[in-house]
Amino acid sequence: MAVAIGAHPSEVVFTASGTEADNLAIKGLAWAGAERGRRHVVTTNVEHPAVLESVAWLARHGFEVDLVPVRADGIVDPEAVAAAVRDDTAVVSVMVANNEVGAVNDLAAIADLIADREVPLHTDAVQAFATLDVRVGGIAALALSGHKFGAPQGVGVAFVRRGVPVDALVHGGGQERGLRSGTYATAQIAAFGAAVESAVADRVRLRDQARAQTDRLATRLLALDAVHRSGPADPAQRLASHLHLQVDGVDTEALTFALDHAGLAASGGAACGAGAVKASHVVEALDVRADAVLRLSVGWTTTDDDVDRAADVLVDAISRLRAGRPVVA
Amino acid sequence: MKVLAAMSGGVDSAVAAALLVEEGHDVTGVHLKLSDVPLDEQVPGQGCCTLDDASDARRAAQVLDIPFYVWDLSDRFLSEVQDPFAAAYADGITPNPCVTCNERVKYSALLDRARLLGFDALATGHHARLRTRGDASALLRATDLHKDQSYVLYMATSAQLAQTLLPVGELTKDGVRAHAAGLGLRVANKPESFDVCFIPSGDTAGYLAQHVDARSGEIVEVDGTVVGEHDGIWNFTVGQRRGLGLGSHERRFVVDVDATTNRVVVGPRQALACQWIEVDGFIWRGAGDPAGTPVRLQIRAHGSTVAARVTQIAAGLRVTVDEPIYGAARGQAAVLYDERDEVCLGGGRIIAAERPALPVAVTGAR
B116 and A254: CB-CB below 8 Å? Predict the structure, then answer.
């Protein structure tokens, strides 16, 4: 794990999830900062809930928070992040790539711009690691989740740079440099290690394949009327694995129902606890006005046949719903 | 038949879905997220649309081995049911949110979507029965008269009823619970909810206080004598006896809630008596002309019925009763049944009620 991101092994803390890794870094860095009088946090308005809710919790406990809005393509302007940093900023958190639209941020530029501010930069790299060569240069803390690249659910990693003060969330026997006490989940960690190894070895191939597959899917769908792709125009600024679409003339719930009925798992947003799909904060932040949004992604098990089948199902479902033809066979 | 079964998380709708599966239909379950009650205000087992209800519905669908979806109609519910609920009280009107929800959400948004997707019918767990002949469907009271919910379905059109299934209406409530227990559904003994679903605490006054501006005013007798003060007319509904805060030793009922004068009028029970009401949004599923058809009138969800007849007047429709009814509140549903008190023929929303001349001089107040 450490080799894969250019870290030292002692800087890798195994957690139960990417969410826990985000919590550890953000709260831990914030608390440690507060001990030096820093009670301000900077992040973006399209972060994963693991980040946004941690920050919201900090706000309820006396921290000031600045949510830097992203551009309409989902990327945050590095200058805007730097401009939000103050002398009392305890932590800056910007995701490598957005988990819904796949917009990839320029972390290196952000790190450069705030290098002289002595503010730790945290990044949620959960969505990016499978297809991007994520490195920790200039970064103080980073979160990963194993299930995104082949490990079983229930294991994540927090990279925490040595020398950067971080308070622990979980206290006890002092495992993981005292940052996360508790007996190691050795089976999960071993699986995580194996998954990292194969994910890194397979990364370039997967990225090229995913790019070809999402392009193929996009070509089929963008040929329909009133279907648009969200996110950056430049493919280099998009995750290869992600395709985020805006579809007019259909309802998100009806569309996802139709797709599910035809055997295609797709999401129109983030599911709440009850299982309903809410318009996501990312879609709202990007000011998307389409009747429906669809976030599609491919992974290392996706075949070209799967993609063609998905395109057939999508084109058929959208056409049927728009024409008022039944989708329940 | 391809049936979309609305599953609230309660025992009735779970058994409705189960009965349809047993009859061999192709059933898909859907749970509606209607009210966006914050998690920390949710009371498990009370109200609707809590996380517990959603997972109860999901578990029932798993036991029945049917596909299950959760659809978020909370925006629609807010604009069509919750906001009008508060607005009505502010206007001195007593709304029935279940009727509004059935009319504006279940029989419009949900049924429309079910049809759009290609389902043949929508099933719910309401206790009422349907008799379909050709294209026409008649709505009948439930087998279990104590649980009958035909009142809150009165507004369904014949065409809507023709695409509706109400499987539990043929069973008693005990029968429903026994059926659920037999299938191993854990909702078999789930307690019933009675309150307004989006106010799980049951504190309607508290809810209204948050949504309607408080404006104090006078409480007056029917003769205009000021007998007290209120801190918002929305705390009062016609027919109400408790919570008036009057020192009077005589029993007093709310007779009228007048938003234009911001007054609550109270009086003795006979001041509530009326011989006719006027309705709007009239729905009629009877065979002939409503005028001239002898009917029975029900003016509250679990009330009794009285013989009545419908007449056309300039302002709309009037329902006249032979013996006086008490406590007809504007906004409540006036539901009409056949002479045998079994078939629900339709009804409307009460927009006016006669107030009899009282044996006291009425001055000031109307």
Answer: yes
Measured between beta carbons, which residues in chain B are less than 8 angstroms from residue A317? none
Residue B300 belongs to some domain of the structure: yes
Least confident of A195-199, B53-57, B59-63: B53-57
Q: State how far the Cα of B119 lies from the Cα of B26, in Å rounded to an integer.
A: 9
Contact state of A254 with B118 under an 8 Å Cβ cutoff: no
CB–CB contacts below 8 A, A to B: 54
Is A329 a member of any domain? no
Q: Is B199 within the bounds of a domain?
A: no
Distance spanning both ends of chain A, measured CA to CA: 47
Q: Which domain holds residue B108?
A: 2-189
Please state, for a pLDDT cut of 70, what percent of chain A lies above it. Answer: 98
The residue type found at B84 is P
Residue from the list B51, B116, B118 with its beta carbon closest to the beta carbon of A273: B51
Residue B227 belongs to a domain with what CATH number?
2.40.30.10
State which of A201, A226, A247 marks the end of a domain: A201
Distance of CA B100 to the CA centre of its chain: 7
Tokens of B237: 């509904």
Q: Is A324 within 8 Å of B116 when comparing Cβ atoms?
A: yes
Residues B184 and B326 in one domain: no
Q: Is A79 on the interface with B (CB under 8 A)?
A: no
End position of a domain, from candidates A175, A201, A227: A201
The CATH number for A156's domain is 3.40.640.10
CB contact under 8 Å between B117 and A257, yes or no, is yes
**A23 plus A142 within the same structural domain:** yes
Residue B276 to residue B258: CA distance in whole angstroms: 19
Q: Which domain holds residue A262?
A: 203-323
| Separation in Å, CA of B220 to nearest CA in chain A | 48
pLDDT digits (tens, 9 = 90+) for A158-208: 999 999 999 999 999 999 999 999 999 999 999 999 999 999 999 999 999
Is the same domain home to A179 and A45? yes
Do A14 and A141 fall into the same domain? yes
A319 in reach of chain B (CB within 8 A): no
Total domain count for chain A?
Answer: 2
From B132, B155, B189, the end of a domain falls on B189
Find the mean pLDDT for residues B81-86.
Answer: 94
φ and ψ at B323, to 5 degrees? -105, 145
B249 — phi, psi (to 5°)?
A: -85, -15
Q: Does B52 touch chain A (CB under 8 A)?
A: no
- The answer to whether B251 and B326 have CB atoms below 8 angstroms apart is no
CATH number of the domain enclosing A244: 3.90.1150.10
Say whether residue B59 is in contact with chain A using an 8 A CB cutoff.
no
The chain-wide mean pLDDT, for chain A, equals 95
This prediction has a pTM of: 0.85
A251 touches chain B (CB under 8 A): yes
Q: Write out pLDDT tens, residues A121-155.
A: 999 999 999 999 999 999 999 999 999 999 999 99
A275–B31 C-beta distance less than 8 A = yes
- Is the distance from CB of A204 to CB of A159 less than 8 angstroms? no
Q: Which residues contact A96 (CB under 8 A, 6 or more apart)?
A: A104, A105, A107, A123, A124, A125, A127, A128, A132, A134
B187/chain A closest Cα distance in angstroms = 17
Do the chains contact at B58 and A275, CB–CB below 8 Å?
Answer: yes
A165 assigned to active site: no
Joined tokens for residue A211: 């790019």
**CATH number of domain containing B165:** 3.40.50.620
Q: How many domains does the structure of chain B reveal? A: 2
Query: In the numeric block, which tokens belong to residue B64?
Result: 């029945």
Which one of A53, A60, A257 makes the best mutation probe of the B interface by having the most chain B beta carbons within 10 Å?
A257
* A328 to B28: CB separation less than 8 angstroms, yes or no: yes
Distance of residue A280 Cα from the nearest chain B Cα, in angstroms: 13
